[in-house]
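_Full entry_
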Amino acid sequence: MQVKIGDVVVTGFALFAMFFGAGNVIFPPYLGMTSGTEWLTGFLCFIFIDVFLSCIGIFTIVYGGGGIKALESVVGKIPGMILNVAAVLCTGVLIAPPRTAATTFEMSIAPFTDEISLFVFSIIFFGIVFAFTIRPTRFVDIIGKFLTPVLIICTFILIIAGILSPIGEIAAPVSQTVAEDGIIAGYQTMDILVVSGFGLVMLNTLRLKGYVERKSQIKAIIGVCIVAGILLSLIYGGLAYLGATSSVVLGNNNLNQAQLIVAITNHLMGHTGMVILGIIVGFACLTTAVGLIGSTACFFEDFTNKKIKYPVWVVINTLISISLCNLGLTTIIEVAVPILTTICPPFMITVLLLLFRNQIKSTLVYKGIALVAFLYGLISTIQSYM
């Protein structure tokens, strides 16, 4: 089947929006601010971990035949199952979906009104997510055709405003570990951990669009990853630059990640900017929550051999997300860091090694490298608390 440009663009937009969520809005500006004049170094480390490896991961998962099968084919059934389930639980259930709602509340609702509590908002937010997600054949096209264009336009308005009228001079870096900060920020977005679920969704979407031959699926997913990767890189670069230009004016205000992007927007565009930021955050978090809950439901339906159906998983995930969301954004981020720095390295290296599955035949090689990466992540996590 001939690959259609329209299919690639719409699906690429959807993949971009599924990746571009809570952490993707708040981490690049903060990284830019702390990196100062070295913001480009931090940004390049960030997009290597977040954009490049995630897009390569999506390709390798699709190339390997789907989320569960791909990893199990190189590290064995039990290790592959453990890696997959750990990654999907972190990204699709315990951390990322609750964080999307908490971020939306803190940045899109709280600045405008105190009439709505986080609990009430979380019910409304995940009610909308549930409505978009409950039918698995619809949510990718809904995201790609309708939600993503609004998200892209609003984000570029903010970035262009910051380029045309910078907040201030770029200061010297306040961090001594700019490259490491970029890598950790890339971990915290959790994008590399969602490739199993997102890869499965992308593969199912391509099949529904008529791409049943392996050759056409591979060609299409390459185009999809390129579209998503370019959009992500451009927007992350713009947000990191905005953060860098705020380093003199806002760098000494002890702002957290969410407060910084709010302060930047208010400084650049005032109330109008705050409305635009509210739309950006709301749409970014909504599209990501839809993608995460939908892909997680697809994953666990596949994992259970369809014994527990997709809609059941959507309901379970939605209820858990509402509960955990009410811990608040700061708590969710603090809890996420040690988990992600432990899980990301073995999962990431295993996904990358899928590219060489035809050259490396022994599963012992994959298992050994994954174990070393896990120990590295575990030691790094322990050292950060000493």
